[in-house]
Automatic annotation (TrEMBL):
This is Uncharacterized protein. Keywords: Coiled coil. It holds the Pfam family Transposase_24. Residues 154-190 form a coiled coil. It comes from the Eukaryota. Residues 17-39 are annotated as: Disordered. InterPro entries: Probable_transposase_24. The keyword Coiled coil applies. Residues 25-39 have a biased composition (Polar residues).
């Protein structure tokens, strides 16, 4: 900052207009529900920096999450925690409750305590969600059982048809064999008669 710019700034902040602006700024800051951790960096700069590394656009909830957490990873306030919880609630409503010990889209190495924090129970399904999940699983079991029973019946019917076909083939072969035996016997009888004509 150049000397004349500094002097102009000091004159402005000591003037009536500067004091009014300071009062408005102080009042506005006191009314803020959320304090962020971005410092003097604008949210646009934070978003741009985050986009540069993974190569993906940063969504509003993700940006809020980045700029409203303390160094230890906990939310700045309970209001901020509620906002951060919105996407988890939406995911739970659409896809159902988290499975015990797992967090969707986070891979096998992340457990709910690591992802949501030790005091958070947002990954725990409610009683109605649990009952709905149990009912869904029961319905699925009934459906699988019915499908299995149908498949078993079909396989049994196919086996019975094959057995009947094999039995019919065997009966036909026996009939032909008996016919051939009779023909052979008739021919033998005729041959004997021919060799030993009656005197």
């Amino acid at each position: 900052m150049l000397r004349y710019q500094w002097e102009d700034a000091v004159r402005f902040w000591n003037s009536k207009k500067g004091e009014d602006r300071e009062r408005v700024g102080t009042s506005s800051r006191q009314k803020q529900k959320f304090t962020h951790t971005a410092g003097s960096k604008s949210f646009a700069c934070v978003a741009q920096a985050e986009e540069a590394s993974p190569g993906q656009k940063v969504g509003r909830l993700q940006l809020f999450n980045i700029t409203h957490r303390k160094k230890d990873g906990t939310p700045m306030s309970s209001e901020a925690a509620e906002i951060m919880d919105i996407d988890n609630r939406i995911i739970n409503e659409v896809l159902g409750p988290e499975r015990y010990g797992r967090v969707r889209f986070q891979g096998s190495g992340v457990n709910p305590t690591q992802y949501f924090g030790s005091t958070s129970h947002q990954y725990m399904p409610s009683e109605s969600q649990s009952q709905a999940e149990v009912q869904r699983l029961k319905d699925q079991i009934v459906q699988i059982q019915a499908s299995t029973d149908e498949k078993i019946s079909q396989l049994r019917a196919e086996a019975a048809a094959r057995d009947a076909e094999a039995a019919a083939r065997e009966a036909e072969q026996n009939r032909k064999y008996n016919e051939l035996q009779q023909q052979l016997q008739s021919m033998m009888t005729m041959f004997h008669q021919f060799q030993n004509p009656p005197s």
